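#struct-pred
JK: can someone run the complex with EPU? inputs below
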Amino acid sequence: MLDLVDEKFVIEGGCRLTGSITVNGAKNAALPVMAACILTKGASRIRSIPKLTDVEIMGRILECLGLSVKHLEDGSLEMGTVDTTKVTAPYELVNEMRGSICVLGPLLARRNAAMVALPGGCVIGQRPIDLHLKGLRAMGAEIDLKDGYVVAYATRLRGTEIYLGGAHGSTVLGTCNVLMAATLAEGTTVIEAAAREPEVQNLAEFLVKAGAKISGVGTNRIVIEGVKELKPVDCQIIPDRIEAGTLMVAGAVTNGDVTVENIRPDHLSAVVDKLREVGVNVTLGRDSCRVRGGRMTASVITTLAYPGIPTDLQPQLMSLLSIAEGTSVITEKVFPDRFMHIAELNRMGANIQKEGPSAIVHGVPYLSGAKVMASDLRAAASLVVAGLAARGTTEVRSIFHLDRGYEHLEERLTGIGAKIKREADTKEY
Ligand code: EPU
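RT: done, structure tokens with the ligand placed:
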């Protein structure tokens, strides 16, 4: 008999969440900023780094690439290059975390070569990198795909005009890759159809502090004038808008009264607007928001690139709408196959059907606790949210997915009245 040990959350549903909870630094901002340390001479300091598996893996990849990665006592990271000869990001690590593809641009720009494992697909759908490669090739990089690796060379990247829009809109990490590469390229690079996400803006802030010349950040047209070198930086990671949205939804579905601290309200406009529309009472402060539950009614949600409703909150909003009155339609425009959580929510008594890139959510009066399995990070978050709202006990298995993007979520939710325990999950075969 083989025993495999994993972890699960055991959630006693139906507890009203009340009190204050603080949002951590954004995973999806931290990862590209960490990769950007390849570009700078000397050690940079990155503050408000969240303690997450993905950040840990990115640290290991960067160590493989010759960077020193030091965790400081105040929770920041100190990172700097010690060996510029390393250019290989191995499959074993890249495959764990697709965000690691953003080392490609910096490696090419600073070390003239890169060998980065192709990340492959995942349960939220295809994760192609054709736009990343198109952008870097336009700047003069020679790129081949060999033995599952992207093998790239460039003696000196050249600035040019690059259109980065794809079938599903702009690309966040593709924009990050080209932006980072362009900072050290010869001449001017113009990125059209650039991603406008706050995480891209946070990266640009780091780069500008380091001496890069960038304009148009936060718009669809970013212009970068190449410079000869970049210096180390002390920078701050923005609060995680997806964690904030998840906590707001958790407050709403438990009919709670929760103040979510350390947020950027301007990063959450679409989410706040949608929550208010469905009947959740949201009061915004300067860097916090108070969420009070109420009677929730159906809505139509379409995920879009920023400033639209983020795809990373689609599963959590689906949990919310599953107990809202009436029939909702949720359409995924960013990852049209990101619906693995539907079957699990239906096991909890939800009534959701998938129709192509949409989900038809018929609201039910309540969800019932069940044993469910997380398939990915945000699906895990949606099941935790559903478990908090449900009657009875929910077991969410494969909780390692959740740990990739939420730091000690069970402890923090327990602090505002949730009943959640992390337990070993031994599967017997
Ligand atoms: N796409 C292409 N070609 C490319 C790149 C992307 O067709 O070369 C498509 C994708 O398949 C998708 C769309 O473009 O349909 C947008 O993908 P994007 O490139 O923007 O995604 P990403 O940069 O790989 C980041 C986040 C994701 C988040 C998306 C969208 C990180 C590490 N990851 O991924 O976060 O869902 O942007 O906002 O920043 C998560 O945190 O759970 C997560 C999956």
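RT: quick notes.
The first helix runs from residue 27 to 36.
Residues 28, 31, 99, 124, 126-132, 166-168, 171-174, 199, 310-312, 334-335, 377-378, 405 surround EPU (CB under 6 Å).
JK: thanks, will look after standup
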